[in-house]
Amino acid sequence: MTQKIAFVASDAESAQDALVQLTARYGQIDAKDADIIVALGGDGFMLQTLHATQDIAAPVYGMNRGTVGFMMNAFDVENLPERLSSSELAVINPLVMRATDIHGEIHNAIAINEVSMLRAGPQAAKLRISVDGRERMGELVSDGVLLSTPAGSTAYNYSAHGPILPIGAEVLALTALNAFRPRRWRGALLHKNAKVTFDVIDPHKRPVMCDADSRSFRDVTSVEIQSEPRIEHRLLFDPGHGLEERVLREQFE
To answer: Which among 27, 53, 59, 108 could disulfide-bond with 234, CB atoms 3.0 to 4.6 Å apart, if both were Cys?
Structure first.
Protein backbone atom coordinates (compact mmCIF):
# COMPACT_ATOMS: atom_id res chain seq x y z
CA MET A 1 0.00 0.00 0.00
CA THR A 2 1.31 3.43 -0.93
CA GLN A 3 2.46 5.50 2.05
CA LYS A 4 0.93 8.92 2.50
CA ILE A 5 3.82 11.23 3.31
CA ALA A 6 3.70 14.79 4.59
CA PHE A 7 6.94 16.76 4.17
CA VAL A 8 7.80 19.69 6.41
CA ALA A 9 11.00 21.73 6.24
CA SER A 10 12.89 24.39 8.13
CA ASP A 11 13.61 27.77 6.55
CA ALA A 12 17.21 26.79 5.78
CA GLU A 13 18.02 26.86 2.07
CA SER A 14 19.22 23.25 2.06
CA ALA A 15 15.97 22.13 3.72
CA GLN A 16 13.83 24.08 1.28
CA ASP A 17 15.75 22.64 -1.67
CA ALA A 18 15.21 19.15 -0.26
CA LEU A 19 11.50 19.88 0.15
CA VAL A 20 11.21 20.76 -3.55
CA GLN A 21 13.03 17.60 -4.62
CA LEU A 22 11.10 15.24 -2.35
CA THR A 23 7.63 16.61 -3.02
CA ALA A 24 8.31 16.51 -6.76
CA ARG A 25 9.25 12.84 -6.44
CA TYR A 26 6.78 11.58 -3.83
CA GLY A 27 3.97 14.13 -3.68
CA GLN A 28 2.67 16.07 -0.69
CA ILE A 29 -0.34 15.82 1.61
CA ASP A 30 -1.49 17.53 4.79
CA ALA A 31 0.14 16.26 8.00
CA LYS A 32 -3.18 15.34 9.60
CA ASP A 33 -3.88 12.91 6.74
CA ALA A 34 -0.40 11.40 6.61
CA ASP A 35 0.86 7.95 7.51
CA ILE A 36 4.33 9.41 8.12
CA ILE A 37 5.67 12.94 8.51
CA VAL A 38 9.14 13.59 7.10
CA ALA A 39 10.94 16.53 8.74
CA LEU A 40 13.76 18.22 6.82
CA GLY A 41 16.16 20.27 8.92
CA GLY A 42 18.25 19.90 12.04
CA ASP A 43 17.58 18.82 15.61
CA GLY A 44 15.96 22.14 16.49
CA PHE A 45 13.48 21.76 13.67
CA MET A 46 12.80 18.17 14.71
CA LEU A 47 11.83 19.41 18.17
CA GLN A 48 9.53 22.00 16.58
CA THR A 49 7.94 19.32 14.42
CA LEU A 50 7.38 16.94 17.34
CA HIS A 51 5.74 19.72 19.35
CA ALA A 52 3.56 20.75 16.40
CA THR A 53 2.43 17.19 15.61
CA GLN A 54 2.03 15.69 19.09
CA ASP A 55 -1.74 15.38 18.56
CA ILE A 56 -1.26 13.62 15.22
CA ALA A 57 -0.90 9.83 15.15
CA ALA A 58 1.69 9.75 12.34
CA PRO A 59 5.31 9.16 13.43
CA VAL A 60 8.07 11.54 12.36
CA TYR A 61 11.08 10.55 10.26
CA GLY A 62 13.78 13.21 10.18
CA MET A 63 16.26 13.82 7.36
CA ASN A 64 19.26 15.93 8.24
CA ARG A 65 19.49 19.29 6.51
CA GLY A 66 21.01 21.00 9.56
CA THR A 67 24.26 20.58 11.48
CA VAL A 68 24.51 17.85 14.14
CA GLY A 69 21.36 15.93 13.26
CA PHE A 70 21.37 13.66 16.32
CA MET A 71 17.64 13.02 15.94
CA MET A 72 17.78 12.84 12.14
CA ASN A 73 18.54 10.27 9.44
CA ALA A 74 20.89 10.82 6.52
CA PHE A 75 19.43 12.76 3.61
CA ASP A 76 18.83 10.96 0.34
CA VAL A 77 16.12 11.55 -2.23
CA GLU A 78 16.25 7.97 -3.49
CA ASN A 79 14.35 4.96 -2.10
CA LEU A 80 12.48 6.87 0.58
CA PRO A 81 9.42 4.55 0.71
CA GLU A 82 11.71 1.55 1.27
CA ARG A 83 13.59 3.36 4.04
CA LEU A 84 10.35 4.33 5.74
CA SER A 85 9.00 0.78 5.53
CA SER A 86 12.09 -0.68 7.21
CA SER A 87 12.56 2.08 9.81
CA GLU A 88 12.70 1.46 13.57
CA LEU A 89 10.28 3.16 15.96
CA ALA A 90 11.38 5.01 19.11
CA VAL A 91 8.79 6.35 21.56
CA ILE A 92 9.75 9.12 23.99
CA ASN A 93 7.81 10.93 26.69
CA PRO A 94 8.27 14.65 27.33
CA LEU A 95 8.39 16.70 30.51
CA VAL A 96 5.49 18.93 31.49
CA MET A 97 6.33 22.21 33.21
CA ARG A 98 4.23 24.59 35.30
CA ALA A 99 5.92 27.89 36.13
CA THR A 100 4.73 30.77 38.30
CA ASP A 101 6.21 34.24 37.76
CA ILE A 102 6.57 37.24 40.09
CA HIS A 103 3.18 38.58 38.89
CA GLY A 104 1.42 35.35 39.86
CA GLU A 105 0.85 34.27 36.26
CA ILE A 106 0.99 30.56 35.47
CA HIS A 107 2.83 29.29 32.40
CA ASN A 108 2.59 25.71 31.11
CA ALA A 109 4.90 24.11 28.58
CA ILE A 110 6.12 20.75 27.29
CA ALA A 111 9.80 19.89 26.88
CA ILE A 112 11.09 16.94 24.88
CA ASN A 113 14.74 17.59 25.79
CA GLU A 114 14.96 19.54 29.03
CA VAL A 115 13.65 22.29 31.27
CA SER A 116 16.35 24.75 32.35
CA MET A 117 16.45 27.32 35.13
CA LEU A 118 18.84 30.12 34.14
CA ARG A 119 19.99 33.24 35.91
CA ALA A 120 18.66 36.35 34.16
CA GLY A 121 20.84 39.00 35.79
CA PRO A 122 24.45 39.67 36.82
CA GLN A 123 24.19 37.72 40.07
CA ALA A 124 24.09 33.94 40.44
CA ALA A 125 20.70 32.33 40.93
CA LYS A 126 19.71 30.95 44.32
CA LEU A 127 17.41 27.96 44.02
CA ARG A 128 15.74 25.55 46.42
CA ILE A 129 15.20 22.02 45.06
CA SER A 130 12.45 19.66 46.17
CA VAL A 131 11.68 16.16 44.91
CA ASP A 132 8.21 14.71 45.42
CA GLY A 133 7.40 17.45 47.90
CA ARG A 134 10.49 16.91 50.07
CA GLU A 135 13.22 19.54 50.16
CA ARG A 136 16.49 18.02 48.95
CA MET A 137 18.67 21.14 48.67
CA GLY A 138 17.90 24.29 50.61
CA GLU A 139 20.10 26.56 48.51
CA LEU A 140 21.90 26.00 45.23
CA VAL A 141 23.96 29.00 44.15
CA SER A 142 24.73 28.63 40.45
CA ASP A 143 24.12 29.87 36.93
CA GLY A 144 21.12 27.55 36.99
CA VAL A 145 20.06 23.92 36.85
CA LEU A 146 18.30 21.69 34.34
CA LEU A 147 16.17 18.57 34.30
CA SER A 148 16.69 16.40 31.22
CA THR A 149 14.93 13.44 29.64
CA PRO A 150 16.99 10.53 28.25
CA ALA A 151 16.31 11.86 24.73
CA GLY A 152 17.69 15.26 25.73
CA SER A 153 20.61 14.00 27.77
CA THR A 154 23.05 14.34 24.85
CA ALA A 155 22.10 17.99 24.28
CA TYR A 156 22.43 20.86 26.78
CA ASN A 157 22.69 18.38 29.65
CA TYR A 158 25.79 16.77 28.16
CA SER A 159 27.36 20.16 27.44
CA ALA A 160 26.89 20.94 31.15
CA HIS A 161 28.76 17.70 32.02
CA GLY A 162 25.58 15.82 32.88
CA PRO A 163 25.28 12.06 32.29
CA ILE A 164 24.14 10.52 29.03
CA LEU A 165 21.07 8.39 29.72
CA PRO A 166 19.98 5.31 27.74
CA ILE A 167 16.70 5.97 25.95
CA GLY A 168 14.94 3.19 27.82
CA ALA A 169 16.17 4.33 31.23
CA GLU A 170 13.44 5.17 33.74
CA VAL A 171 15.43 8.15 35.04
CA LEU A 172 15.84 11.89 34.56
CA ALA A 173 19.09 13.83 34.85
CA LEU A 174 19.22 16.78 37.24
CA THR A 175 22.32 18.76 36.34
CA ALA A 176 23.80 21.91 37.88
CA LEU A 177 25.04 24.74 35.67
CA ASN A 178 28.32 26.14 37.04
CA ALA A 179 27.51 25.48 40.69
CA PHE A 180 29.19 27.83 43.20
CA ARG A 181 27.63 26.41 46.37
CA PRO A 182 27.70 23.48 46.99
CA ARG A 183 30.86 23.81 44.94
CA ARG A 184 31.28 20.17 43.98
CA TRP A 185 27.62 19.33 43.43
CA ARG A 186 27.08 18.24 39.83
CA GLY A 187 23.53 16.94 40.04
CA ALA A 188 21.52 13.77 40.60
CA LEU A 189 19.68 10.97 38.85
CA LEU A 190 15.96 10.86 39.62
CA HIS A 191 13.27 8.30 38.89
CA LYS A 192 11.22 9.11 35.82
CA ASN A 193 8.07 9.50 37.95
CA ALA A 194 9.64 12.09 40.26
CA LYS A 195 8.04 15.52 40.57
CA VAL A 196 10.74 18.19 40.80
CA THR A 197 10.14 21.69 42.12
CA PHE A 198 12.56 24.61 41.81
CA ASP A 199 11.85 27.62 44.05
CA VAL A 200 13.69 30.85 43.35
CA ILE A 201 15.17 32.50 46.43
CA ASP A 202 15.01 36.32 46.26
CA PRO A 203 13.63 36.47 42.68
CA HIS A 204 13.67 40.30 42.53
CA LYS A 205 17.35 40.65 43.41
CA ARG A 206 18.38 37.49 41.57
CA PRO A 207 15.97 37.09 38.62
CA VAL A 208 15.65 33.69 36.99
CA MET A 209 14.14 32.57 33.70
CA CYS A 210 13.07 29.06 32.79
CA ASP A 211 13.31 27.51 29.37
CA ALA A 212 11.43 24.50 28.00
CA ASP A 213 12.91 23.42 24.65
CA SER A 214 13.74 27.06 23.80
CA ARG A 215 10.38 28.40 24.96
CA SER A 216 11.34 30.90 27.65
CA PHE A 217 9.54 32.49 30.60
CA ARG A 218 11.11 35.34 32.58
CA ASP A 219 11.02 36.29 36.26
CA VAL A 220 9.80 32.94 37.55
CA THR A 221 9.42 32.25 41.27
CA SER A 222 8.77 28.51 41.13
CA VAL A 223 8.70 25.75 38.54
CA GLU A 224 7.19 22.26 38.84
CA ILE A 225 8.32 19.56 36.39
CA GLN A 226 7.48 15.92 35.82
CA SER A 227 7.45 13.37 33.02
CA GLU A 228 4.18 12.91 31.13
CA PRO A 229 3.70 9.28 30.04
CA ARG A 230 0.34 10.07 28.43
CA ILE A 231 2.11 12.06 25.71
CA GLU A 232 4.11 9.94 23.29
CA HIS A 233 6.38 11.31 20.58
CA ARG A 234 7.05 8.68 17.92
CA LEU A 235 10.26 8.91 15.87
CA LEU A 236 11.49 6.69 13.04
CA PHE A 237 15.12 5.80 12.34
CA ASP A 238 16.98 3.77 9.73
CA PRO A 239 17.79 0.23 10.95
CA GLY A 240 20.86 0.16 13.18
CA HIS A 241 20.80 3.94 13.64
CA GLY A 242 18.06 4.32 16.25
CA LEU A 243 18.17 6.54 19.32
CA GLU A 244 19.41 3.73 21.57
CA GLU A 245 22.37 3.07 19.29
CA ARG A 246 23.12 6.78 18.89
CA VAL A 247 23.12 7.37 22.63
CA LEU A 248 25.43 4.39 23.18
CA ARG A 249 27.79 5.48 20.39
CA GLU A 250 27.93 9.02 21.77
CA GLN A 251 29.51 7.73 24.97
CA PHE A 252 32.50 6.27 23.12
CA GLU A 253 33.30 9.25 20.90
So the answer is: 59
Q: Digits of tens for pLDDT over the chain (253 positions)?
A: 578 999 999 999 999 999 999 999 999 999 999 999 999 999 999 999 999 999 999 999 999 998 878 889 999 999 999 999 999 999 999 999 999 999 999 999 999 999 999 999 999 999 999 999 999 999 999 999 999 999 999 899 999 999 999 888 899 999 999 999 998 898 999 999 999 999 999 999 999 999 999 899 999 999 999 999 999 999 999 998 877 887 788 778 7
Structural domains in the chain plus CATH codes: 5-92+232-250 (3.40.50.10330), 95-227 (2.60.200.30)
Q: Which of 35, 43, 143, 202 is catalytic?
A: 43
> Whose CA is closest to 149, among 133, 163, 134, 132?
163
- Please say if 132 is a catalytic residue: no
Q: Is the separation of the CB atoms in 113 and 47 below 8 Å?
A: yes
